[in-house]
Amino acid sequence: MPSDSKFLLSSQPRARWMRLDTAQLLKRFFFCERSLLLSEAAWIPAIAPLTIKIELAKFIWQNAETANALRDRVFELRFPSRILAEEGADHTLIELFAEAKNSPSVPAFLLSIGRVLLPALRDAYREYLERSDTIADGPTHRFLSQALRDKNDQIKAFEEWIESALPQNDESSQGALAWTKAVSDQLAHIGGVGVAPASASTLNKLPGSKTYSIPDRPARDARFWPCRFYWPDIVDSAYPYGEGMQLQLRSAISHLNEVWAIEAGGIMLSAFAGVLPWEWIRNAARWTYDESRHCCMGYERLMAWGLHPSEIPLGSYIYDSASGEDPIYRLGMLYFFETKNIRHKLARTKLFHEYGDLMSEHDMDFDWADESMHAGFGKRWLKELLVARGEDPAAYERIREHCGTLIRENISTATTQEITDIKRLATSLLAKAAAS
């Protein structure tokens, strides 16, 4: 304590940032997380490996939960203000994070996220936790410590994906590396994420940037049997859904083929983020993650039964049915199938219990709970999206009905060869299952 002071003074590093300084940094992190998850969601349909689609959906949900905690904490620190719409001095930084959506290729997307943007956020969180006050800002430390662990896990996963997606000495690889260097250079130019005051720099146009568009066809994992229609009953109403072993197989393959729902979730999340409120993004991220868990359920059951991916059909007809349509029909498709199939879930859960198939029973039981929630999501957000467009919210049922029409029209295009092939595959799978 200085001898000439009339007050009790001491040097305390934990008093580095006041309440509003802290809120400003956390707001920066919120917008970075938001932009990051929107870019990740948009790219799900373009990525082929099933494991990446499934894990990326989980990361999107994790990022949404972190962003939500950041958002709530900013409101606490800024009380009574509930305004968070402005990016302010961090606009250029957030714009760069959003630019990942315009990556020129899948390798470029994976590289720029995994080796530039995710590490930048991880380092910023680590620095924040090291320099902020664990007493006054204890609530932030709790959720940001979890976010730091999530980022480390995400970076590790991205590194594995990059290794498999980046062929050596390939022209596309060179383009991806050039794109990533441009993103990295631009991030350094504007001062990174960090905890320092924001730079006033403007974002330079990134060479190689390719304006994002929703893929007409989804990328599919080459390990699986490629098709549009993944079971005979889809294209032949006389073919039974089945009971016993046939029901077990049909349900697992149906779960696996909810890959389309992961893709639809990513598209709709990204497409309507600028129209609907934050709660939409959080709900849609959870919805997308839930669909990825259902897909994983089916995959794990099929693998446990000794089947090989090359024997298992992975279709695209539901995704294809909404291609070229307003993205509202991606949301409509999810709502259509959630409300169409939910009535069967409990009955099938009971049947699996009678078969002694505890895993199918378990998965269907949890699926029912998820879909009950999703049906509410679909109705609510279709109505709110219509209101945001100046349309009658009661028209949400017409969207659902039109989705049914799109599905029927797409099924009507099934060729004789497609029908023959999927029936032959189903017969082979059932015979193999019966012989095991």
Account of the protein in words:
- Strands 1-2 form a two-stranded parallel sheet.
- By secondary structure, the chain is mainly α.
- The termini are far apart.
- It is 67% helix and 1% strand.
- The chain has two domains: 174 residues, Heme Oxygenase, Chain A (Up-down Bundle); 211 residues, Heme Oxygenase, Chain A (Up-down Bundle).
**How far is the N terminus from the C terminus?**
81 Å
Just name the CATH architecture of the largest domain.
Answer: Up-down Bundle
Query: How many E strands?
Result: 2
- Quote the beta fraction: under 5%
Layout of helices and strands, plus pairs?
Layout: H1 19-43, H2 50-78, H3 91-99, H4 106-131, H5 138-165, H6 171-189, E1 225-226, H7 232-235, H8 244-256, H9 259-271, H10 278-304, E2 313-314, H11 317-321, H12 328-355, H13 358-388, H14 396-411, H15 416-435
Parallel strand pairs: 1-2
Briefly, what is this?
This protein has 436 residues and is mainly alpha-helical. The chain has two domains: 174 residues, Heme oxygenase-like (Heme Oxygenase, Chain A, Up-down Bundle); 211 residues, Up-down Bundle (Heme Oxygenase, Chain A). The protein has a two-stranded parallel sheet with strand order 1-2.
Key attributes of the depicted protein:
mainly alpha; Heme Oxygenase, Chain A; 2 domains; 15 helices; 67% helix; elongated
